[in-house]
Specification:
The complex is a heterodimer. The longest helix of chain A has 36 residues, at 21-56. By secondary structure, chain A is an all-alpha fold. Chain A has 14 helices and no strands. Helices cover 71% and strands 0% of the residues of chain A. Chain A has two domains: 43-76, no CATH class; 86-294, MetI-like fold (Orthogonal Bundle), CATH 1.10.3720.10. Chain B is 68% helix and 1% strand. In chain B, helix 9 packs across helix 10, helix 10 packs antiparallel against helix 13 and helix 12 crosses helix 13 (293-322). Classes of the chains: A mainly alpha, B mainly alpha. Chains A and B meet through helix 1, helix 4, helix 5, helix 6 and helix 7 of A and helix 1, helix 4, helix 5, helix 6 and helix 8 of B.
């Protein structure tokens, strides 16, 4: 504990705006030292991303060199072409899109209804539902993979897209309910009541008041769901081992082998895979930074 | 930030249904009380079939001998009681995986939170342009898919052509050419920890930075005026206010890091050796490489049980928020 010397209070009633010159100078020196540390930190953080881009634009003979080339001397799009032309890349890209968009839409519809109930109604089992939603976000989904695989196998949904879509929808559902609940709760209840008094039915209140006002929330939530589903690879890799039923993430995994990895095309594929996610992430970064500690889970 | 705000909801003694907080509507329709139930049906059905049932199934399978013949239905599952569990407690690979995870989680969470806090404090201290640069770099890291950034690290620590070996090799008197990082488990886990730290730092630093901006400036000024040093201000003013938030991010980091899978999976080329086995990779391998679904389920169940205490703490914190509005 710090004990602050009380005796000094009397002689500093008015805050000393003008600090001694020496102190000001050390503060300025301190800031430039801090700025230098900040720049070094930023460089270290950004280095892997830079290295990925650097590798992707190099011709093969510049990738495997004992002295690394820090920029491509003969920049080329060859790696991107060979990634796109590689077997399964376009199929997996299509699968990624189908799986992600379907799962997000399903979770959004189901989640919005659930969030509406939790935010606007008090009903028997409400607390239990909140508890389940919160718990589910914590449970390692890998643990559930074994029974999920057995179930999907029993109903012959392994190696199909609908099987994966259903699992992904459940994976993002808790977050969707939890976040949308917050957005709906932020719509003043007085608006609902005003609409009801003005003669709106419950359904009209929903379509004309709540839905338009939670629009931005729906967009942010679906983008976050998109990122989660797009980045997932363990579930799809387990349920669907047929390569033509997998997604882009598994394409990346399958192309990284201990015997020989073609890092150039792999990094190009990684860039193509990352671009949608990075763009979406930047679009909602404010929500993510604020929302994570308010009950979300990292993707 | 309303993280630990107390439950301020007034006790409701009237009917449990109807719009929250609103006076009972005058023209109350009979089906109004059923509306919430109708709304949650789809969500409940999904959660029951793909979540509750799998949990039940996982527990039953853990009590069975369930392997390839049972999967293909050529032989019925055989109830074997707790023998999968007793086998687990005699399994040295399981115990070494527990050891890895406890060590890794302790070290990585401690380092993450300390580093995150230092970066957050640094962000308060630097000029605007420097803070902006830091934020952009961290956002980039945060946005990259975990799998992709781990693959980039796998490439960077490649024994023959990796840039990391070359960089270290530049230090005079150090020979790091063709250094294999995963030959020695300590070094290998060092690489894994570094990747996890690098990936997790943006979340920690930016969240803690947001928390730091919530600390009332007057309190800091008052303490400074009273002659407290920067360290004293941090210890006596900033840290106590930040403590709940630090608690939350520490809990989340423990939960995430204990489930470590992707990083090991990618860095060990989908076949982690015994020295790099985590609890989740071990469960996965037992089930899907060795076809021992019953035994794999036991590993998964014990993993969840080991995390339960931390999870309960987090859920209690979050429940306070969820119940509030």
């Amino acid at each position: 504990m710090v004990t602050i010397d009380l005796r000094r209070r009397s002689d500093t009633v008015t805050p000393s705006v003008s600090q001694p010159a020496g102190r000001r100078r050390t503060r300025r020196v301190g800031t430039s030292v801090a700025n230098t540390v900040a720049v070094v930190f930023a460089v270290v953080m950004a280095f892997p991303a830079y290295w990925m881009i650097n590798t992707a634009f190099k011709p093969p003979n510049e990738v495997l060199t004992f002295t690394p080339h820090f920029w491509p001397e003969h920049p080329t799009l060859q790696n991107f072409l060979s990634a796109v032309k590689a077997p399964l890349f376009l199929i997996d890209l299509r699968n990624s899109l189908v799986i992600t968009i379907s799962a997000v839409l399903a979770a959004l519809v189901v989640g919005f209804l659930g969030a509406l109930a939790v935010a606007r109604f008090r009903f028997y089992g409400r607390k239990a539902l909140i508890l389940v939603v919160l718990t589910v976000q914590m449970v390692p989904f890998i643990a559930l993979l074994i029974p999920l695989f057995l179930m999907m196998n029993a109903v012959e949904l392994t190696n199909t897209l609908p099987g994966v879509i259903a699992v992904y929808a459940v994976l993002i559902l808790p977050y969707t309910v939890w976040t949308l609940r917050g957005f709906i709760a932020n719509v003043p209840r007085e608006l609902d009541e005003a609409a009801l008094i003005d003669g709106c039915s419950r359904w009209q209140t929903f379509t004309r008041v709540i839905l338009p006002l939670t629009g931005p929330g729906l967009v942010a939530t679906s983008i976050y769901g998109f990122i989660q589903a797009w980045n997932e690879f363990i579930i799809v890799n387990t349920l669907n081992n047929a390569p033509e039923k997998q997604n882009l993430m598994t394409w990346l995994i399958n192309n990284q082998t201990q015997r020989q990895t073609f890092w150039g095309p792999l990094m190009a594929g990684a860039i193509i895979t990352s671009v949608p996610v990075v763009i979406f992430f930047m679009a909602i970064q404010k929500n993510i930074a604020a929302g994570l500690t308010a009950g979300a889970v990292k993707g | 930030m309303t993280i630990t705000a107390p439950d301020i909801e007034p006790a409701r003694t009237d009917s449990e249904d109807g719009p929250l907080g609103a006076p009972p509507p005058r023209r109350r329709r009979g089906w109004d009380r059923f509306t919430p139930y109708a709304l949650i049906i789809p969500a409940v059905v999904l959660l029951l079939t793909l979540l509750a049932y799998p949990v039940y199934r996982m527990i039953t399978v853990s009590l069975q001998k369930y392997e390839q013949p049972q999967l293909w239905g050529t032989r019925p599952p055989e109830w074997i009681g707790l023998s999968n569990y007793t086998k687990l407690f005699k399994d040295p690979t399981f115990w070494s995986a527990v050891e890895h995870m406890v060590m890794f989680t302790a070290v990585s969470v401690l380092l993450s939170v300390l580093l995150g806090l230092s970066v957050a404090l640094l962000m308060r201290r630097v000029s605007n342009w420097a803070r902006y640069t830091m934020t952009v770099a961290m956002m980039l890291v945060w946005a990259m898919p975990q799998l992709v950034s781990t693959q980039v690290f796998a490439w960077m620590v490649d024994a023959d052509f990796g840039v990391v070996n070359w960089l270290i090799d530049q230090i005079p008197g150090v020979d790091f050419s063709k250094h294999s990082w995963f030959a020695d488990p300590i070094q290998g886990w060092g690489v894994i920890t570094a990747v996890v730290l690098w990936q997790g730092l943006p979340f920690l630093a930016i969240t803690l930075y947001a928390g730091l901006s919530q600390v009332p400036q007057e309190l800091i000024e008052a303490a400074t005026v009273d002659g407290a040093s920067a360290w004293q201000v941090f210890r006596a003013v900033t840290l106590p206010i930040l403590r709940p938030l630090i608690g939350i991010v520490t809990t989340l980091s423990v939960i995430w890091n204990f489930q470590l899978f992707t990083q090991v999976w990618v860095l060990r080329y989908a076949k982690p050796e015994a020295e790099y086995q985590t609890l989740t990779t071990y469960a996965w391998q037992q089930a899907f490489n060795n076809g021992k679904y019953g035994y794999g389920s036991v590993v998964a169940i014990v993993t969840v049980l080991l995390m339960l205490g931390v999870m309960a703490f987090y859920i209690r914190q979050m429940f306070k928020i969820g119940d509030q509005d």
